[in-house]
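Key idea: predict the complex, not the pieces.
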Amino acid sequence: MKKAVKIPLTVLGIGAAAFAVTFTVYFFNLDMKLTSMIEPILLNHYDKIPRNQRI
Amino acid sequence: MAFKKVDLIKNPKERKGDQELGIFYTGKGKVMKRREWRGVKDTLYDYTRWLYIMSVLARFIVKPRNIKGMFRYRWMANYLAVPHMMDKFTQGLRDEPLRITHTAMNFVIYDVAQTIENIFRGDRRTGNDEEFSKRCVLTDENAMTAFMMGFKNSKAILREVPTMFVANLLTQYSTTHYIDVAQEFGIPGDVCPMPEAEAGISIDDDFAVLGCCAVQVNTTCDGSLMGNGLIAKRLEEEYGIPTFQLSAPMRHREADVQDYAAEDIKMAIKFVEEHTGEKWDWDTYFAAAKRVNDATRHRQEWLDVNSTYYPQFVGSVFSLYNDTNYMGNCGRSPLFPPVDAKITKLVRRGYERKTMMAKEYRHRCIVWGVQPQYNIHMLYWMINCWGVLPLTDMLSMVNTKMIAEEDTPENREQAYYDMAWLNENMIMRNRTHGGYKVLVDELWEFCEKMNADMVMMWEHMSCKALDGLHGQFEEQGRERGIHIVWVCHDLCDPRVYTRQAIRDEFSQYMRTVLREEPLDPSLEFINDENAW
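Result:
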């Protein structure tokens, strides 16, 4: 295949794949499902930080 | 007296995409099972805005000092939920209202990200940029930043906004840890949870530490005074950050308090000059004053459209954007006017096309009282579930007066009175302080002007200033034939009053007094008690 055709097709293919992946993440709320699993880990971490609690 | 009636407005267009909006929460997790389908065009638009938000978050988190801040400060965990907040605020929206909400709120997200970046840059525990920190003035959360309008290089840092207020927009349980800490140290449990949480953050040593000085205001209530007292003590004694108390008069509409108020602004400016080493610049001030007037004109136009049959910019985001622009920005940033102009363009287009947000509009409602609608999607829920249109809210009914914007010798003196006026008319304070005229009487004027037949009265159980006037609202509302729907809550403590308990109070009125059935029955009970 000629380079002039191959390059735009590759770019188009990458763009389409990126759209398919990100749109799936967006629509099924996978980003928020993942971050909601990270939250308890972070909260455990904050509990372990020594703090100078005083008024 | 018979109840006032408003025309029923039916939407000739069918809403594209999902019709039932109560199906997204399963009760198991913290988030929705999927995002809303809004038809091809609007879903793609919403998707591009999601990409934009992700890019803002990515640009924020790639910086090492921000990562350090993320692992140091508990409140930062709430920022995992930024896209979830946008989904709450855009539920059921299509066409122009969807675009208006994104335009406004996406800019607020950008602005808050910048604020956190600045906080971590100056913070002694993370960025520790001492030169930058020397230019920062810590400013109270509920403070008009008018006294900073003439400082070109010094930065007003509203430290409590991202730490407490915005965190609570993101997740409903964001403050409970800090409330518990405050109560462990003897703060009573019936104080407003907002200043109590701020006091708890200070006690828990979870505020970033930066700035050459701080300015606190006598905010909206006795709870705020309590919180500020504790925060100032730690700032001054432990971190060596001097604090100025900017005290607006209580009866701020009286002519005889204005000299005092202007004098106090002069003293605040002098205090900032002394600690930052920067001189007040009148060119900077009057440029900011022009932007304040510009924002006032835009807000008035949005409210004018909301007085018609086809409001376009409503809900929590209407209030949040106004709070950010009017109070947090107060004309200082040139980035706001283009956003205002874009919103106005969309508002005009939506009005011309008679765009509606629900199948029908049954009631026109003014939202009054101390409002918790930010951390729940209550106002959008009212539209979608019951066809009740929230025309405006108490915190958005602020200054309408134009301030002096030309640099003349007379206007330089007038400027102190204008800044004092803005400070007195800070959101919430302009209604909770100032007596029954500004809190009760003017509400009926707004009902008349905006043709409202209903007032949704938020009754914050820990706010004594408003609870004391319960009977006055009841009696005067009855005289005018206005439906007063009382909805109780405890602001940012969902353990006392859950989201569903809040919605139930509204639904009870709709079913028992008005004998109406919901437009979308799937929304009447939502399993979101454990949700973000």
